[in-house]
Each structure stands twice: as structure tokens, then as C-alpha cells.
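Give me C-alpha cells for this 168-residue protein.
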Amino acid sequence: MLAPWSRLLALLEAPEDAPVLAPMLEREILYRLLQGPQGGVLRQIAQDNSRLSQIRQAITWIRAHFDEPIRVEALAEIAGMSPASFHRHFKAATAISPLQYQKVLRLQEARRLMVVNADTTRTAYSVGYESASQFSREYARMFGAPPSRDAIRLRAQSLGLEEINSAT
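Here you go.
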């Protein structure tokens, strides 16, 4: 896997070769992925009628609507499964429940927003939380610090990286 990836990255230094060589390297990478230990799982995801494909449809919906309340029954309907079967297959595919998955998406988006705008309450509501205090508790549990303190730390890290990049 590393050899075709390295060759693909090397094309960044030879943009005139990219239109011809990149498609072949992408094809080789896909081939190696499909032939590797996770190839069977990847093939299942790609098939329209597989369980993993049905879970993928629900995940796509959750990603597009992460800031809205969700019902497992509605997600199961999107996936074309019973709620019990959907929950079992979702957890097998992601290692977490659909509601936990939504919470992770919300908190990751909130973290991104907090770096730009440190207003905790506004951020909490914009990612779908109904309670700023619940948001702050869950945020601190996931990232190890309250939202405003974490945002300050992330901004400081970002500024440090910008200074390093401008010095080189």
C-alpha cells in the first residue's frame, strides 16, 4: 500500500504526469484495498443490497442532519431494517450506537466552531443541543476540558503552527 501512495504523492511534484499516472495509481490502491484483509467489508459497503450499505445510507442521513433530533425507528426505516436489526448492525459497523454516533458528530462540529467563535451557548444550540450545560458536560467528557478552555488551547496551538509555517 505504501508504494502506490508514495508514487501518487510524488505526482504533486510532477503535475504534468498526474493526468496520465494518477488514475492508474488510484486503481492500484483500490485493488490492493479490495485484496487486503478488509476487502470483504469494503465490497459489502459498495454493494447496494448489503447490510453495510444499508447502514451507510443511515450514516449519510445522520451526517447531513446531525443537528436535528433523530429516532432510531426513522433511521431503521431509511436502512430498510427493523429497529432491533438496525441497532445491532449499526453497532457492529461503527462500534457505537446511532445516538452516540450523532453525539460524536455534534461534538466534533462544536469543537470546530468553538475555535472560530468561543460562544459556548450559541455553539451548543447550533449543533443541536437543547441544554448548554449538557453540551458543556459532554464536551468536557469527550475532549478533556470545558468548551471555552479547549477553544483557547486550540487557537493557541493553531497560532503556534502558523508562526512555524511562516518562519519556514
